[in-house]
Write a structure and sequence with these properties.
Layout lengths: L1 H17 L7 E3 L5 E3 L4 H17 L6 H21 L6 H10 L5 H20 L3 H21 L5 H19 L3 H22 L6 H19 L2 H20 L2 H15 L1
Antiparallel strand pairs: 1-2
Helix pairs in contact: 1-2, 1-8, 2-3, 2-8, 2-9, 3-5, 3-9, 4-5, 5-6, 5-9, 6-7, 6-9, 6-10, 7-8, 7-9
């Protein structure tokens, strides 16, 4: 509880100061409104500081190291994309097609970093070769999934919170309560950020979306059975293949319009 309250405090104090920084980066959102981006770096700060605090207070901190590595690595590569990235190349297919031509984009760096970190975390967790491959793919694809969701205010935060709620229910069912405890500080930070994101005060940017996505993947890998992970991987591969050819935003907005008209 104390660590979760600390996360809330860190997030509020950081964001209130971050939005007033003189050289904060601004980007135009889907409504052509200039909004400060890369606010998701707060998740990096919250994860690292609260996990350091937890390491002093508790012994069973087996999931803190991968979380901190994911936050630092994906926060850096995401921030690199937020600051230097271009909107001319989109999707994994687009970035790797540029790589084949000898051009390295910020998206390519982010994808390679994400896969590398995912493989390292999966290796450290251990298991059979098949399990290591499955776990690495889940972690890497989860990092990119939140990027696909972060195209409208609050959407990525809501997706993360709903996914986390489902996973917490699963952890309760399997009596894996400790994982709920370790991820609660991040959930608290996301709840605070949702207020800023929904009101178009801040955008999380890739610096935040990648961190949340990879954290979600770590949650799945650390707390799910083998067959549950297989199901998660099938879902992730399917949605990434779908997103290469169709716009998830248009489909989600279409479903929202239908809901408003008929429900």
């Amino acid at each position: 509880m104390a660590v979760t309250l600390l996360s809330l405090l860190i997030t509020i104090v950081f964001l209130e100061n971050f939005r007033s920084w003189e050289k904060a980066i601004k980007k135009v959102n889907y409504r052509n409104k200039e909004v400060i981006t890369a606010g998701g770096v707060v998740f990096v700060v919250a994860i690292i500081l609260t996990n350091i605090c937890a390491a002093f207070l508790f012994d069973d901190t087996y999931v803190l190291e991968p979380l901190m590595l994911a936050a630092a690595g994906m926060g850096f590569s995401g921030l690199l994309d937020d600051v230097y990235g271009s909107n001319t190349v989109k999707g994994l297919k687009g970035h790797f097609s540029q790589l084949r031509r000898g051009r390295i984009t910020t998206g390519t760096v982010k994808a390679i970093m994400g896969l590398g970190i995912a493989c390292f975390i999966s290796l450290k967790k251990g298991g059979s070769i098949l399990e290591i491959m499955i776990n690495a793919l889940i972690i890497a694809l989860s990092a990119n999934l939140l990027n696909l969701m972060d195209l409208r205010p609050g959407r990525a935060c809501r997706f993360f919170l709903v996914s986390t709620l489902i996973l917490f229910g699963y952890f309760l069912y399997t009596k894996n309560i400790s994982l709920i405890f370790w991820f609660m500080p991040l959930v608290a930070s996301v709840l605070v950020f949702l207020v800023y994101d929904s009101r178009e005060v801040l955008m999380m940017g890739d610096a935040g979306a990648n961190v949340l996505g990879m954290s979600l993947g770590i949650m799945v890998v650390w707390g799910s059975s083998f067959y549950a992970r297989i199901s998660a991987l099938i879902f992730l591969v399917g949605i990434h293949l779908f997103a290469e050819y169709y716009s998830l935003s248009k489909i989600i907005e279409g479903l929202t319009i239908i809901k408003r008209k008929f429900l």
